[in-house]
Protein backbone atom coordinates (compact mmCIF):
# COMPACT_ATOMS: atom_id res chain seq x y z
CA UNK A 1 0.00 0.00 0.00
CA UNK A 2 1.14 3.54 -0.70
CA UNK A 3 0.22 6.85 0.84
CA UNK A 4 -2.66 8.96 -0.31
CA UNK A 5 -1.93 12.39 -1.72
CA UNK A 6 -3.38 14.62 1.00
CA UNK A 7 -3.77 17.55 -1.40
CA UNK A 8 -5.96 15.58 -3.78
CA UNK A 9 -8.22 14.20 -1.08
CA UNK A 10 -8.34 17.51 0.81
CA UNK A 11 -9.28 19.46 -2.34
CA UNK A 12 -12.04 17.08 -3.34
CA UNK A 13 -13.43 16.77 0.18
CA UNK A 14 -13.53 20.57 0.36
CA UNK A 15 -15.44 20.63 -2.93
CA UNK A 16 -17.86 18.04 -1.58
CA UNK A 17 -18.43 20.12 1.56
CA UNK A 18 -18.98 23.22 -0.58
CA UNK A 19 -21.56 21.38 -2.68
CA UNK A 20 -23.41 20.20 0.44
CA UNK A 21 -23.49 23.72 1.85
CA UNK A 22 -24.83 25.21 -1.39
CA UNK A 23 -27.41 22.47 -1.90
CA UNK A 24 -28.75 23.06 1.60
CA UNK A 25 -28.57 26.84 1.50
CA UNK A 26 -30.35 27.16 -1.83
CA UNK A 27 -32.72 24.21 -1.57
CA UNK A 28 -36.16 25.03 -2.94
CA UNK A 29 -39.13 24.31 -0.72
CA UNK A 30 -40.76 21.99 -3.24
CA UNK A 31 -40.36 20.25 -6.57
CA UNK A 32 -42.75 22.81 -7.99
CA UNK A 33 -40.46 25.65 -6.91
CA UNK A 34 -37.49 23.83 -8.43
CA UNK A 35 -39.35 23.47 -11.73
CA UNK A 36 -40.27 27.17 -11.82
CA UNK A 37 -36.69 28.34 -12.17
CA UNK A 38 -34.37 27.18 -14.92
CA UNK A 39 -31.48 28.80 -13.08
CA UNK A 40 -32.25 26.99 -9.83
CA UNK A 41 -32.87 23.64 -11.48
CA UNK A 42 -29.72 23.91 -13.60
CA UNK A 43 -27.62 24.91 -10.57
CA UNK A 44 -29.08 22.05 -8.55
CA UNK A 45 -28.34 19.51 -11.27
CA UNK A 46 -24.81 20.83 -11.63
CA UNK A 47 -24.15 20.69 -7.89
CA UNK A 48 -25.49 17.16 -7.61
CA UNK A 49 -23.27 16.14 -10.53
CA UNK A 50 -20.19 17.75 -8.96
CA UNK A 51 -20.92 16.07 -5.62
CA UNK A 52 -21.22 12.65 -7.22
CA UNK A 53 -18.05 13.20 -9.23
CA UNK A 54 -16.17 14.27 -6.09
CA UNK A 55 -17.28 11.08 -4.33
CA UNK A 56 -16.09 8.91 -7.20
CA UNK A 57 -12.86 10.88 -7.70
CA UNK A 58 -11.89 10.51 -4.04
CA UNK A 59 -12.81 6.84 -4.10
CA UNK A 60 -10.88 6.29 -7.30
CA UNK A 61 -7.83 8.01 -5.84
CA UNK A 62 -7.95 5.81 -2.74
CA UNK A 63 -8.38 2.66 -4.81
CA UNK A 64 -5.53 3.58 -7.14
CA UNK A 65 -3.03 4.77 -4.56
CA UNK A 66 -3.70 2.44 -1.66
CA UNK A 67 -5.03 -0.70 -3.34
CA UNK A 68 -3.41 -0.28 -6.80
CA UNK A 69 -6.77 -0.80 -8.49
CA UNK A 70 -8.43 1.01 -11.34
CA UNK A 71 -12.12 0.75 -12.11
CA UNK A 72 -13.98 0.89 -15.39
CA UNK A 73 -16.98 2.94 -14.28
CA UNK A 74 -18.41 5.07 -11.51
CA UNK A 75 -20.53 2.13 -10.37
CA UNK A 76 -17.48 -0.10 -10.25
CA UNK A 77 -15.72 2.45 -8.06
CA UNK A 78 -18.53 2.47 -5.52
CA UNK A 79 -18.75 -1.32 -5.56
CA UNK A 80 -15.01 -1.66 -5.10
CA UNK A 81 -15.01 0.82 -2.20
CA UNK A 82 -17.39 -1.55 -0.45
CA UNK A 83 -15.40 -4.64 -1.38
CA UNK A 84 -12.22 -3.24 0.20
CA UNK A 85 -14.13 -2.09 3.28
CA UNK A 86 -14.04 1.69 2.91
CA UNK A 87 -17.82 1.96 2.79
CA UNK A 88 -20.44 -0.54 3.96
CA UNK A 89 -21.81 -2.86 1.28
CA UNK A 90 -25.42 -1.91 1.94
CA UNK A 91 -24.55 1.80 1.69
CA UNK A 92 -22.80 1.14 -1.62
CA UNK A 93 -25.80 -0.76 -3.03
CA UNK A 94 -28.25 1.93 -1.92
CA UNK A 95 -26.19 4.62 -3.61
CA UNK A 96 -25.26 2.95 -6.88
CA UNK A 97 -28.17 4.69 -8.65
CA UNK A 98 -26.44 8.04 -8.15
CA UNK A 99 -24.07 7.07 -10.93
CA UNK A 100 -26.98 6.59 -13.33
CA UNK A 101 -28.36 9.95 -12.24
CA UNK A 102 -24.99 11.59 -12.92
CA UNK A 103 -24.85 10.03 -16.40
CA UNK A 104 -28.37 11.19 -17.15
CA UNK A 105 -27.45 14.76 -16.20
CA UNK A 106 -24.13 14.80 -18.05
CA UNK A 107 -25.10 12.96 -21.20
CA UNK A 108 -28.73 14.02 -21.46
CA UNK A 109 -29.85 10.43 -21.99
CA UNK A 110 -33.45 11.32 -21.39
CA UNK A 111 -35.87 13.69 -19.80
CA UNK A 112 -34.99 14.64 -16.27
CA UNK A 113 -37.93 14.46 -13.90
CA UNK A 114 -37.51 17.44 -11.57
CA UNK A 115 -39.78 15.84 -8.98
CA UNK A 116 -37.29 12.98 -8.73
CA UNK A 117 -34.42 15.47 -8.68
CA UNK A 118 -36.08 17.21 -5.76
CA UNK A 119 -36.43 13.91 -3.92
CA UNK A 120 -32.75 13.17 -4.48
CA UNK A 121 -31.86 16.72 -3.46
CA UNK A 122 -33.47 16.20 -0.08
CA UNK A 123 -31.27 13.13 0.54
CA UNK A 124 -28.03 14.05 -1.26
CA UNK A 125 -26.42 16.29 1.37
CA UNK A 126 -26.64 13.56 4.01
CA UNK A 127 -25.41 10.92 1.56
CA UNK A 128 -22.49 13.13 0.55
CA UNK A 129 -21.64 13.71 4.22
CA UNK A 130 -21.72 9.96 4.87
CA UNK A 131 -19.28 9.32 2.04
CA UNK A 132 -17.02 12.07 3.39
CA UNK A 133 -17.20 10.51 6.85
CA UNK A 134 -16.17 7.10 5.53
CA UNK A 135 -13.28 8.68 3.62
CA UNK A 136 -12.12 10.64 6.67
CA UNK A 137 -12.25 7.49 8.81
CA UNK A 138 -10.25 5.55 6.23
CA UNK A 139 -7.65 8.30 5.91
CA UNK A 140 -7.26 8.46 9.69
CA UNK A 141 -6.60 4.71 9.72
CA UNK A 142 -4.00 5.22 7.00
CA UNK A 143 -2.25 7.89 9.05
CA UNK A 144 -2.14 5.58 12.05
CA UNK A 145 -0.46 2.77 10.08
From TrEMBL:
Residues 6-33 form a coiled coil. GO terms for cellular component: toxin-antitoxin complex. This is DUF86 domain-containing protein. GO terms for molecular function: hydrolase activity; RNA nuclease activity. Belongs to the HepT RNase toxin family. It holds the Pfam family HepT-like. The keyword Hydrolase applies. Keywords: Coiled coil, Hydrolase, Nuclease, Toxin-antitoxin system.
